[in-house]
Amino acid sequence: MTEKPKISLIVISRDEEELIAQCLRSARFCNELILIDSFSTDRTVEIARGLGAKVFQHEFTNYVMQKQMALDRATGDWVLLMDSDEQATHDLGEEILTAVSSPNPADGYRIRRILYHLGHYYPYGIYPDNPVRLFRRERGHIGGRDPHDKVVVDGSIGKLASPILHFSYRDVADHVATINRFSTRGATEQEPTIFTPVQMLTNPMWRFFNFYVLRGGFRDGGRGLYAAMTAAFYVFLKYAKLYERKLKSRRL
Description:
Elements: E1 7-13, H1 20-26, E2 32-37, H2 44-50, E3 54-57, H3 63-73, E4 78-81, E5 86-88, H4 90-100, E6 108-110, E7 113-117, E8 120-122, E9 132-136, E10 140-145, E11 148-153, E12 157-159, E13 164-166, H5 172-188, H6 196-214, H7 221-251
Parallel strand pairs: 1-2, 1-4, 2-3, 6-12, 7-13
Antiparallel strand pairs: 4-9, 5-13, 6-9, 7-8, 10-11
Helix pairs in contact: 5-7, 6-7
C-alpha cells in the first residue's frame, strides 16, 4: 500500500490571536503545522500550540526571510503556504489531497485568493490573485522582493480550482496602517531616481485606471472605487517615501 504524501502548513505571525485559530483549523488536512512567530504580545502562540502547531519564535526580519525560515523547518513532502489572516476552504482541502496523491502531480500549484473586506468578497477581476501556495518541499523556496514574497518552484506549475479566503483588514484604519507599513518596506527595496517625482504622479494614475477600468472595479460600485483608490494610494506613498529619501540625501 502506497503511503500518502505528508503535507506541512507554514505560517508566519505577529499578534494574530483573532485569526490564527481559523487559519490553522482550516488546514486540518495537513499533517504538520509550522508557525514562525515574531514574539507576539497577545495569545497567538498559546492558541497555535493548543491546536498542535510547532511554534518557533524569531525577531521579524522581512517577509521573504521569515517564510523561508518556516519552510526550512517543514518536514512534509508537500508544503502549503498561508498567511495568518487566510483560511483554506473545505473544497480546497479535498482538492489538495487529491492533487498530491495523483499519479503525476505538478511540482507546484497556483491557488486563487479571494479577498474579504468591507463586508464583501472580491471573487473576480479587481484582485486577480493566483499565487503558488502548494509545492513540493524539495522543489521550492521563498523568493520575491519584500514585502511581496512569492514561492519559486523548480518544475511544473498547475492550478487548483478552489480558493483560499483572505480576511486581510479589520477595517479601513487597519487597511491604511497596512498600506503605510508595506509602502515603507517597498520603498526601502528601491532606490530613488531622477524619474521618482514623475512616477509619484503617473504610477498611481495607472494603478487606479488598471483597477477601476481594466479590471472592472466600476462594477463593484463604491467598494470597487475604494479598492482602486487604496491601490493607487499605496503606489503614491511608496514613491513619495522614495522622493523623501532623495530630498534627504541632498541635504547630507
